[in-house]
Amino acid sequence: MKKMIRLMGAWMALVLALALPATAEATGPRDVKVERREFPVRLANGQRYTVVGYLYYQGSLKNRPVQILSHGITYNHGYWDLPEIDGRDYSYARYMARRNYAVLALDLPGAGESERLDGDALNLAESASALHQVARHLRATAQKNTFEQLIYVGHSNGALISTFAQALYGDAQAVVNTGWLNAPHTVPVDSSVLLEFLNQGPYITVPGEMRGALFYDPAHSNPELVAYDNETADTVTRGQYGDLLTMMAYPQLIPAGDIRVPVMVQLGDNDLLAPASYAAAEARMYPRSCLVWVDTLNNTGHVFNGHYGKERGWAAIDLWLSLVVR
To answer: What is the pLDDT of residue 199?
Structure first.
């Protein structure tokens, strides 16, 4: 397995070096369709709640792999559809829709337009269950040749949720995790500061100054985009946040070893929370996966979609998925 991972990394690096300049270019100004979808989910208390997602696509949905996107803390589906600023397009969802994917960007339970309930009850297990139920509902209601291939794409805490969902339920044919490390590592924030947020109540707000400092590499991001990000920041449930701190402290509890489908991981070299210096260790966190590739993005902080070099990462995901699921 380790030899296969090393060979895969060397081979993919060569392919990317040859293919990315052309792949990263836009495919044209065709309109992207955006549909608001609602999905019923039943949580552990036995009650039904609504999870909202936005579906992005071009043309027909037939024979389109669907990427189900899970955002990190303080975000909602808008992380995947950031606005154009100074002539730069920051929308991952629209980029992938133009490359013949169906893209479902979710508001996870307790975030965005999805129903809110007790923030202490909305924890990691509930989020993973909700993601699984959305995937199952998507398949159950699909027409022939629609949504036959599911891909989980998660960022930061969303990657943690995708990992749990795939390990427990196995709905997806491939998993892409960005800005998340299962490998043990340290973060440059005093634990007492992180724990103090738990005192806010069932729904937690992270200050913009802290978000900006931890999420962005200022030399390679637009301050207008950072300001927009902080102005539109969402809250996070205390249950989810508490479980996130637990998994960061005890990563051995994360069931990444139970994932058997292809896994791609992207890590930023300037990401303070999940640095690319742990790439080799992270590749070993998926011992049962049939294929693992860890990709390093240069000049990139934690919020991958908000940095100038984002197209490099998007094009790499597109290329990798074209090799493993198409």
So the answer is: 97
Instruction: Residue 93: give its domain's CATH number.
Output: 3.40.50.1820
In one-letter notation, the amino acid at residue 249 is A
- Residue 190 belongs to what domain range? 2-324
Closest CA to 132 of 110, 152, 103: 152
- In 10 A of CB 131, how many CB atoms? 30
Q: Give the count of domains, the chain.
A: 1
Q: What is the mean pLDDT of the chain?
A: 92
Provide the residue type at 36 as one letter: R
Residues of the chain falling short of pLDDT 70:
1-30
Which pLDDT value is given to residue 86?
94
Three-state SS for the chain is CHHHHHHHHHHHHHHHHHHHHHHCCCCCCCCCEEEEEEEEEECCCCCEEEEEEEEEECCCCECCCEEEEECCCCCCHHHHHCCCECCECCCHHHHHHCCCCEEEEEECCCCCCCCCCCCCCCCHHHHHHHHHHHHHHHHHCCCCCECCCEEEEEECHHHHHHHHHHHHHCCCCEEEEECCCCCCCCCCCCHHHHHHHHHHCCEECCCHHHHHHHHCCHHHECHHHHHHHHHCCCCEEHHHHHHHHHHHHCHHHCCHHHCCCCEEEEEECCCCCCEHHHHHHHHCCCCCCCCEEEEEECCCCCCHHHECCHHHHHHHHHHHHHHHCC
pLDDT of residue 8: 55
Q: What is the predicted pLDDT for the residue at 141?
A: 83
Residue whose C-alpha is closest to residue 310's, from 216, 230, 232, 246: 216
Provide the residue count of the chain: 326
